[in-house]
Amino acid sequence: MSAVETSLDGQTALVTGAATGVGKAIATELARRGAFVVVSDIDDEGGRRAAADINGSGGRATYVHADVTSTTDLAGVLKAAGVAQDGLNIVVANVMGGGASGSIWETDPETARRTFDIMVFGVYNVIRAFAPALIGTSRSGSPARLLVVGSEHSLGVPPHVFPASVYTVAKYASLGLVDTARRDFADSGVSVTLLAPSWVRTEKLVELIHSSRELAEAIEPNAQNADEVARQAVDGLMKGDYITATNPVTREFALERARQVMASVQTLPVVGPSDDASVHDGTGDTAKCPVAGHM
């Protein structure tokens, strides 16, 4: 895949949660670069409007209803959009919903469970549903890419953000999903990228800013426009980046967390390659794992 590729002419992209916000902005950017975009959401009115806005701006898009918590909905998206199994080039797993401010113990279990059902299992469901199509596209010789929309919360606990522990946990899971997807797709030619923005001026965030002067003072200085985040997201996706962080405010706390991890493990003794056949090599080949056959 060329690092300087800029056009998506002739390619097809699917974006979940694309009725509003970051999802809509990414869908719009993909269409601007030439892709045919399948806009997917549970908000039918907003989703149809997003597709109409893209079409009205000279792009090409269609809307398909799908709830990311429903494997049945996801299984029918490509057929409903008229997309062949080997004709899907880009999947954007953008999932948002649930979550509440406060510490772990201030969040009730039902809220936490609902948040994880949407934001963790939702992303898992999207990857699982469209992995065969992406692999088929790659094997046919066309580009195949997965973008998981995470957050700066995927990289640690942002000190400049009020506590929202359950949300942070859910977004942190996005990094684990990306890491394992990169391993699982390693031999298929499908690239996997994590988008990790900070505050983005979506419709909901603007409402939040307007609701409180205190929130406005805390959020607005660090907020980015959705179209700028979308541009960085698609740039990172097309380059095959591992992580696309969009906001300088993320830099120091993410680096500090990385330093803490390094400090915790660098004192461990160095272990060289083993000739022991019972030790797998980390490639994901379960035949080399001494535990997999007993699970």
TrEMBL record:
Location of the region described as Disordered in the Swiss-Prot/TrEMBL record: 272-295
Organism expressing this protein natively: Streptomyces stelliscabiei
Keywords assigned: Oxidoreductase
Cited PROSITE patterns: ADH_SHORT (PS00061)
Pfam entry (one): adh_short
Top enzyme class: oxidoreductase
InterPro entries, A to Z: NAD(P)-bd_dom_sf, Sc_DH/Rdtase_CS, SDR_fam
Keyword Aminoacyl-tRNA synthetase among UniProt keywords: no
Protein name: 3-hydroxybutyrate dehydrogenase
Family the UniProt entry places it in: Belongs to the short-chain dehydrogenases/reductases (SDR) family.
CDD domains assigned: SDR_c
PANTHER family assigned to the protein according to its UniProt record, in alphabetical order: 5-KETO-D-GLUCONATE 5-REDUCTASE, ALCOHOL DEHYDROGENASE, PUTATIVE (AFU_ORTHOLOGUE AFUA_3G03445)-RELATED
Enzyme Commission no: 1.1.1.30
Any one Gene Ontology molecular-function term assigned to this protein's record: 3-hydroxybutyrate dehydrogenase activity
